[in-house]
C-alpha cells in the first residue's frame, strides 16, 4: 500500500503553487478540520493521515485540548501537493526527504528544485511512453473498425 504523510510545513508559499486547487473553506471560518473531515476531503484514510505524520510527510499536526488532531488550511494544501507528488510515482522516501527540506526552509530551494526537476523528467518520459501506447491502440482500433466495415460489405 502506498501512503503519503503530510506534515504541515512552515514555509508554505513555495509549496502552495503545487496544490491541487482551492481548499474548501469551512463554514464559520474556523478553518480547522478533524481527521475524519480531512479523510473525507482528501480521500485518504485516517490511518494514512496518522502514518504520514509518523513518518514525517506531515509536520506535527495541531492538537485540540482533548488531544485530537486539528488540520488547518495549510495542511490541506500540503496534502494536495503530496497527492500530486504521489501521482508522479515519486517514492515515499523521496517525498519524506522533500518534506524535510521544506521544513528546513529557503536554504534548501536548490535541492528541492533538483528533486522536482528529476521527477518532471521521469513524468515526461512516462507521458511519451503512454503516448506511444495510445498510438498503438488507435491503430488497432482503426484496423478493427475497418475490418468490421469490410466484413459487413462482403
- Overall body shape: elongated
What is the average of the pLDDT values?
Answer: 85
Helix content class: 55-70%
Helical region count? Answer: 6
Q: What proportion of the residues form beta strands (DSSP E)?
A: under 5%
SSE arrangement, N to C = HEHHEHHH
Low-confidence stretches: 1-23
Question: Would you give the CATH topology?
Answer: Multidrug-efflux Transporter Regulator, Chain: A, Domain 2
Distance between the amino and carboxyl termini: 53 Å
Main-sheet strand order equals: 1-2
Give me the CATH architecture, please: Orthogonal Bundle
Radius of gyration: 21 Å
Q: Total domains, how many?
A: 1
Question: Mind explaining what this structure looks like?
Answer:
The chain has 154 residues and is an all-alpha fold. It has one domain (12-120): Multidrug-efflux Transporter Regulator, Chain: A, Domain 2 (Orthogonal Bundle), CATH 1.10.1660. It has 6 helices and 2 strands. The chain has helices at 12-16, 35-42, 46-55, 73-87, 92-104, 109-153, and strands spanning 32-33, 71-72. A two-stranded antiparallel sheet has the order 1-2. The radius of gyration is 21 Å and the shape is elongated. This is MerR family transcriptional regulator. InterPro entries: DNA-bd_dom_put_sf, MerR-type_HTH_dom, MerR_fam. It comes from Streptomyces noursei (Streptomyces albulus). Keywords: DNA-binding.
Can you give me a brief rundown of this structure?
This protein has 154 residues and is mostly helical. It has helices at residues 12-16, 35-42, 46-55, 73-87, 92-104, 109-153; strands spanning 32-33, 71-72.
Amino acid at each position: 500500500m502506498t501512503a503519503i504523510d503530510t506534515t504541515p510545513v512552515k514555509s508554505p508559499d513555495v509549496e502552495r503553487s503545487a496544490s491541487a486547487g482551492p481548499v474548501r473553506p469551512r463554514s464559520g471560518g474556523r478553518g480547522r478540520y478533524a481527521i475524519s473531515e480531512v479523510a473525507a476531503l482528501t480521500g485518504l484514510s485516517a490511518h494514512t493521515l496518522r502514518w504520514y505524520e509518523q513518518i514525517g510527510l506531515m509536520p506535527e499536526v495541531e492538537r485540540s485540548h482533548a488531544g485530537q488532531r486539528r488540520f488547518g488550511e495549510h495542511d490541506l494544501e500540503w496534502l494536495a501537493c503530496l497527492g500530486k507528488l504521489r501521482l508522479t510515482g515519486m517514492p515515499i522516501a523521496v517525498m519524506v526527504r522533500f518534506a524535510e527540506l521544506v521544513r528546513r526552509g529557503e536554504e534548501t530551494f536548490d535541492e528541492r528544485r533538483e528533486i522536482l526537476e528529476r521527477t518532471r523528467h521521469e513524468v515526461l518520459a512516462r507521458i511519451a511512453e503512454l503516448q506511444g501506447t495510445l498510438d498503438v491502440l488507435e491503430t488497432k482500433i482503426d484496423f478493427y473498425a475497418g475490418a468490421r466495415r469490410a466484413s459487413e460489405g462482403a
